[in-house]
Amino acid sequence: MYDTSDIRKGLKIMIDGAPYTIVEFQFVKPGKGAAFTRTKMKNLLTGAVLERNLRSGDKLEPADVETKTMQYLYKDADSFIFMDTTTYDQVGIQKDTVGDASDFMPENINVEVLFFNGRAVAVSLPNFIEQAIVETDPGFRGDTATGATKPARISTGASINVPLFINVGDVIKIDTRTGQYLERLARA
Amino acid sequence: MVAARETLETRAGILRAVRGWFERQDFVEVDTPARVRSPGQEVHLDAFPAGDRHWLITSPEYHMKRLVAAGLPRIVQVAKCWRANESGPHHRGEFTMVEWYRANEPLEALADDCEALLRVAAMAARRDAGALGLAAPFARTTVRELWARHAGFDLRGDEEAADLRAKATAAGVALGSAEAWDDIFYQVFLDRIEPQLAAAGPTFVFDWPAPLAALARPKADDPRVVERFELYAGGLELANAFGELTDPVEQRRRFEDEARTRAARGREVYPVDEALLAALPRMPPTAGIALGFDRLVMLVLGVRDIAEVVAFGDER
Questions:
Q1: What is the pLDDT of residue A148?
Q2: B220: CB partners within 8 A, 6+ apart
Q3: In this predicted structure, what is the pLDDT of residue B3?
Q4: CATH of span A128-186
Q5: Is A30 close to B183, i.e. CB distance below 8 A?
Q6: Among partner residues A30, A52, A58, which is closest to B186 by beta-carbon distance?
Q7: CA distance B165 to A69
Q8: Which residue of chain A is at minimal alpha-carbon distance from B58?
Q9: CA nearest to B140, candidates B205, B199, B195, B234
Q10: Do B91 and A57 count as a contact with CB atoms less than 8 A apart?
Q11: Bridge partner list, A149
């Protein structure tokens, strides 16, 4: 068990049955009362932020969570297959768990997999990926309208909006958090 | 980080103005021992040992009350105080307190003093009291009113800890392992009340429940609460005032109670201040208050971290 003196950024604890990581904390001591630690923490499963005032003396249960770097290999009928980059062990992670991350998860990419009580519960991508365009309408020369975009497909099958000058084979940079096109890195 | 030169100059100007104000009100500035045999029995305060069974004061209150009992009706002290295990944006192990006493005057007189002093401090710092929200009369409320409004339940002051816990739980407060009356109270305070106070203008909170009496006397017309107020302003807990308890029998009972609680919680137990108990029967009805001077400077300058208003604030 932890107590409030163990609180630091990144400490992982259980609150109401869910794992949280400490984001911010501050010493407070109201009136003539006990010392508290005002704490902001993030739910590792949902990303929801929770504020709690933890009293000095309160016991905190450590969360059994672990992050592993894993390489995405391929997908089968109902799961994605990853390889632990340290042990080379392969594990399948349910499609539901991977969720929308699969849109920006090309084969062979390294991702961070969060394990809670030994079970994979979340996959997080690098903030940026580089991908070649596999399908898009040809550019319209002469159409220079600022901000005009068209849909384009990358190898994962995901469709994103790109500027009109992007062609099949161009390599672009994508922000995986917003799903937005950022820049062209190479021409076809 | 050392406070900026300008901050230290402003701090000195505020202190000069505060001292001048007390002088004009016919207060006598006193200087009581910093190294004492009885540093105060309060359950949640820890004193720094200072050798030979002495400690550094956590507050100058015991000696100052003895001076009032000895016949000084209006005294003020600008005192360094020390509290172990307190460090944060509003707390330092060593800090400066302005503490004053008015014999034969009601608790409300100290609230009036606070209003005047905060304006004096703003003026000394060349800040606009109106812009700081200090120009109009400060709001005055009670603990019970705040609880009804922001916690959603009736806090009477005479309920058992188990009742209080049940009421707080029903109101949706996560209490953790809190079982003591004061621990439950402060969990509710921090979760529900303090954020509202931090967003409001300067506010005096009167009529504290009897289990949080500290050195305050029970209210004559309602013994479930005591004559105590706290002043909150700009998200800071600025001052704490008592209608001082002068009944030596009740005071001894509270000291012994607190000593037992300290022992039960594994905290150091300090000797009871027998000289204070002996002086209480000679003490006139008195109102006394402690105001955090570093926090006053923070308030006036709009500073968020106490380390920015003291010299060598980075040397914790």
A1: 83
A2: none
A3: 77
A4: 2.40.50.140
A5: no
A6: A30
A7: 45
A8: A32
A9: B205
A10: no
A11: A163
The one-letter code for the residue type at B258 is E
Q: How many CB atoms lie within 10 A of CB B185?
A: 26
In whole angstroms, give the CA distance from residue B179 to residue B96.
33
Q: For chain A, what are the domain ranges? A: 2-62, 65-124, 128-186
Give A13 to chain B, closest Cα distance, Å.
14
Residue A61 contacts B where some CB pair is shorter than 8 Å: no
Asked if B176 and A58 come within 8 Å (Cβ–Cβ), the reply is yes
User: Chain B contact for A59, CB < 8 A?
Assistant: yes
Chain B contact set for A52 (CB, 8 A): 174
Query: How confident is the model at residue A185, as a pLDDT?
Result: 94
Strands A18-28 and A65-75: unpaired
Q: Are B286 and B104 in contact (CB under 8 A)?
A: yes
Mean pLDDT, range A127-143, rounded to an integer:
83
The chain A residue lying nearest B229, using CA atoms, is A31
**Domain definitions of chain B by residue range:** 5-138+201-309
Give the domain A2-62 fold.
Answer: SH3 type barrels. (2.30.30)
In the block, tokens 């003093």 appear at B113
Tell me how far CA of residue A187 lies from CA of A131, A132, B48, B268, in angstroms. 12, 9, 70, 73
Domains A2-62 and A128-186 share a fold: no
Can you tell me the distance from the alpha carbon of B195 to that of B232, in angstroms, rounded to the nearest whole number? Answer: 11
Chain A residues lying within 8 Å of B304, measured CB to CB: none
If you classify domain B5-138+201-309 with CATH, what class do you get? Answer: alpha beta
SS3 A187: coil
Interface test with A, best of B58, B81, B187 (most A CBs within 10 A): B187
Digit-coded pLDDT (tens) for A139-185:
666 556 667 889 999 999 999 999 999 999 999 999 999 999 999 99
Distance from CA of A140 to the nearest CA of B (A): 56
Q: Is domain A65-124 given the CATH code 3.90.420.10 in the classification?
A: no
Please answer whether residues B246 and B281 qualify as being in contact, where contact means their C-beta atoms are separated by less than 8 angstroms.
Answer: yes
Listed residue (B67, B140, B155) closest to B103, CA to CA: B67
CB contact at 8 A, B235 and B1:
no
B293–A contact, CB cutoff 8 A: no
Please report the DSSP string for A5-70 in residue order.
Answer: GG--TT-EEEETTEEEEEEEEEEE--TTS--EEEEEEEETTT--EEEEEEETT-EEEEP-EEEEEE
Interval B13-53: pLDDT, tens: 999 999 999 999 999 999 999 999 999 889 999 999 999 99
With beta carbons less than 8 A apart as the criterion, state whether A61 and A49 touch.
no
